[in-house]
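Cross-posted from the bioinformatics board.
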Amino acid sequence: MAHMNTRLLALIPLAVGINLAMGQFVAVMQLPLFLDTVGTILVAALAGPWAAVTTGVLSQVVFTVVSGNIVWIWFLPVHLLIAVYSGFAARHRVFRSLPRTLGAGLVLGAAAATMAWPIAYLVFGGVTSGGVTIVTTLWSGAGIPLKWAVYLASLSADVTDKIVSFLLVRIVLHSLPIRMASRFPLAARALGRT
Amino acid sequence: MIIGYQPGTGPLHRAHPLTTLTIAGTVAALAFVLPGPVGPAVLVLAVVLTAVFEKVPRILRVALIIAAPFWVFAALLHGVIAQDPTRAVTLSARITAMIVVFLVVLASVHPARLVDALVARRIPFELAYLLSATLQAVPRLRARAREIIAAQRCRGLRVRGPFARRIGVVIPLALPLILGALAEVDERAIALEARGAASPSRRTPLNPPVDSTVDRLTRWSLGVALVVALAIRVLA
Amino acid sequence: MSVEFTAVTFRYPGSADPALSNVSIALGERGSITVLTGALGAGCSTLLLVAAGLAPHVTGGDLQGAVRTLGENGTTKDGRASLAGRVGTLLATPWTQLSGMSFTVWEEIAFGPANLGWTRDRIDGAVDRALATFDIARLAERDPQTLSGGELQLVMFAAVAAMEPVLLLLDEPVQELDPRRSDQVYAEVLPTLAEQAGIVIATTNVDRAVDVADRVLVLDNGRILADGDPAPILGGSTMVAGGRSTTAARIARDAGFSEPYPLTVDALIQRVVS
C-alpha cells in the first residue's frame, strides 16, 4: 500500500461505519435486505476501486469482530468481489441513468450469490445462520437438492439487496451538495457528468 | 451480551497478541483438518476449557447464543432432511470450536495492544490507523443511526406497508447518516494531518508488548503442528 | 516572521467567491499573540488553514499568491514534511479531531508526538508537560469518547501543544469551555505557550482575547479590514458598531463614552473612576 492520503484515512472508517449501521434501518423497517455494502459501493463511486477494496476488507474484519461471530470472515471474498465490481462499475458511469444503476445492481447480486454459494455450501454445509438459512431450509424441505437450495436462497437475497444498494448510492450521489461533490471528482464521472 | 475485551491476567492476556492470534488461527484450521466428528469435538472441549482457565467463562454464553442456530439448522438440514447425523455433529463442532476460540481472542487481546504489536512489527501506519479508527467509528455511527430512527419515530415513522414503500422509507433514514458522515471527512482529514499523521517519520509504538522466547516457541510449534496435521490428513 | 502571505487569494472547490482575497500579511513571531477576528465566514479559519499548509492540500481549492510558513512552502510535499509538528493547528470542533486511535486521554495526547517518531522518553515528557500546562492530569486515564465538550477541547488543545510547535494556530480555542476554564486558558496557558511559540488565535469573541493580544487583525469578506494595536482598532466606533469588538466596549459606547472605547471591564471601570 502506497502512502494513503489522509482524506481516504478519514473516509474509509466512516464508510465501514455506514455498512455496519445500515442494518439498524433494515431491521426497523423489517426489510429482507442487508444493505451492508452500501458504504463500500459509495466509496467505489467516490474514491475508486482500491479504496473500495480497503473498505470491503475492513468491513468484513470489523463486522466479524463486533458481532463476535467468526463465521462472517469466510465471506470476505464476496465483499472483495463487490468492492472491485463497484469500482469498475462506477468507472463505467453506471450511476448515469436509473436503468443502468438497477442493471448493475442485478448483475452484482447474481455474481455475489454465485460467489457466496460455494462458501456457504462447502464450508458450512448451507448452515450460515440468519434469514438466508431459513430460506435454504424451506427450499431443501420442498425436495430441492441441498446445493441448489443454498444457491437459490442466496440468489434471491443478494439480487434484491444489491439492486436496492446501488439505487441508494445513486440517490446519495445526486444529493451531494456542490461543495462536497467537487471534493470527489470521481463521483462526477460515476454519474456520467464528465 | 458482552462481546469484546474483558480485563484479566491469564496467560492469553499476558501473551504477545500475535501468539494469541496464532493459537486461534491454528484452532480454526484444525477444526477443518482434524477428522470428524471426534477431532472437532475434542477441539471444542479444549477451547471451552481454555475459556474457563483464562477466566473468561462469560464468553461461553455468547458462544452459545451464536452457535445454537447453527446446531438447529445443521440438525435440520443434515440430520433430518439429509439423514446424515454424523455430518451434522461434525459441522456443528467445527463451527462451535471456531466461534469459541474467536471469542476467547476478543476477550483476551485489547485492541490497543494488538495495534501497538502491529506498529512495532512495522506494518504501515495507515493499516494500524484504519483498524483502530474503524473500531471506534462503528459504535458512533450505529448510535447516530439509532438517533435518526428515534427522530423519525417522533415524526410518525410508519414501519408497515408494501415492500416498495418500506424501501422508500429507508431513504430518508439513510441519507442523513451517509451525508453527515461525508461532511465530516474533510475536517477529520485536516485534524489528522495537523497531528502529524502524514509525517514521513515512522510512528513510535506507545506500549509495544513484549515478545518473549516462550511466545516465539509457541508460535513456531503451532505452525509445525498444523503442517503435520494437514500432512496426515492429506496422506491418509 | 513565521507566516508571510504575499497577495494571497484562496477559493474553496465549487465556490466562486474567494474565502481570502489579495491578503498580504506577516505574523506569528515567536512570543507574540495575534488575534484574528471578524464575522463568521470572514476568512479567519481559512487564513489559519492556508498558513498551516492544510488548505488547499487537504481541503482542495485554488490558491494564488505566495505563502511562506517558517520559511517553507506548505503547498509542496517536502514543505509539509518539514512543517509537520512545527506548526500546531487546533480546529474549532473538538469531536472530529479525536484521532480514533486512542483508548485513553494520555494516548490521545501522545498521538501527535508518536506520529513524529519521537522516542518514548521524549513522548512521556511532552505528554506530562502538556497535561500539567492544561491542568488536566486527572483526565489522563479517561476514555476520550466519554469526555464532556469542554474537557475534550482542552485535551485536543493539549494534544496539539504536546507536539511542541513553534507556531500555534488556534481556531476558537475556548468555545466549549466554561468561563472559569477560558479565563485560565487566557491568563495562564497562552502566556506559558507563548514563551516557546508564536500564537495566532482566530475567534469571533474577543472579550478575553484582548487581554493577551499584542496585535489584532480584523477580516471582512476575505480581506484585511484593520491591522495593529488592539486598543485603537477595537476601540474605534466602526468596530464597536459592527459587533467586532468586546462587550465592555459596546457598553462604553452605549453609555456615551468617547473613542477609543475601553476594551476590558477593568479599563471601563478606570474610565468611570477618572
